[in-house]
Write a structure and sequence with these properties.
- By secondary structure, the chain is α+β, with helices and mostly antiparallel strands.
- It folds into two domains: 94 residues; 85 residues, ADP-ribosylation fold.
- The strands form two sheets. The chain has a three-stranded antiparallel β-sheet with strand order 1-3-6.
- Helix 1 packs antiparallel against helix 2, helix 1 runs parallel beside helix 3 and helix 3 packs across helix 6.
- It is globular, with a radius of gyration of 20 Å.
- 33% of the residues are buried.
């Protein structure tokens, strides 16, 4: 379990930081080792370690996996379920370059079809920064729904549209009745510029409006 303490309680911060770093490295090593050995059960155990005993474990794990030449199909199958259920995984990794490299190992990456017209619902800041996310969809309404959820942020929501070349496509999810969103996982560094299909204004009260309540 990750230990959380409050300042001023007499904690040895240097020792705590050292223990945290050791836990991060141990969890990441377990994940990479499971990928190398093809042990699906060990991978699930490593995921639990990262989620419950580390702070920076996901970033370190993805950096390690990105250096591998490949993994067994069993590992890809398990990781796909981890990806589907961990909606905030990209944010927890916190390193898009490392995650992009790791996903090229952990995702099938065998798409051979035509370029895909894709949509993504996100915060408006994403388009301004041109730092696009990994999860897109072939369904405009799904992207619109995600953008609607982002209206609670100050920048509001946005629906992006792009045409992803085959080399950018890492996974095309098949309809399986399990979080079906027409999801297509891409390497954002292989995408061209995305166009704005729809803007949704923020629904967050302004500071002035809030002060009158």
């Amino acid at each position: 379990m990750v230990i959380r303490v409050e300042p001023g309680d007499g904690t040895d911060w240097q020792a705590l930081d050292l223990a945290e770093r050791r836990a991060d490295r141990a969890a990441a090593r377990a994940f990479v080792s499971a990928c190398q050995s093809g042990d699906a059960m060990a991978l699930l155990h490593a995921v639990d370690l990262i989620n419950h005993t580390s702070v920076d474990g996901w970033r370190l794990a993805m950096r390690g996996v990105g250096r591998l030449s490949g993994v067994d199909q069993a590992i890809r199958h398990v990781f796909l379920h981890v990806w589907i259920e961990s909606k905030t995984l990209a944010r927890r990794v916190g390193d898009k370059r490392a995650l992009a490299a790791a996903l090229r190992v952990l995702m099938p990456g065998n798409y051979r079809g035509p370029a895909l017209r894709l949509f993504r619902g996100a915060q408006a800041d994403e388009q301004r920064c041109r730092l696009y996310g990994f999860s897109w969809t072939t369904d405009f309404q799904t992207a619109h729904d995600f953008a609607t959820e982002r209206q609670r942020f100050p920048s509001g929501g946005i629906v992006l549209e792009t045409t992803a070349p085959p080399e950018a496509v890492l996974l095309v999810r098949e309809a399986e009745g399990y979080y079906d969103e027409g999801e297509v996982v891409v390497d954002p560094y292989k995408l061209g510029r995305a166009a704005v299909r729809e803007r949704l204004p923020s629904t967050r009260p302004t500071q002035m409006a809030a002060s009158h309540r």
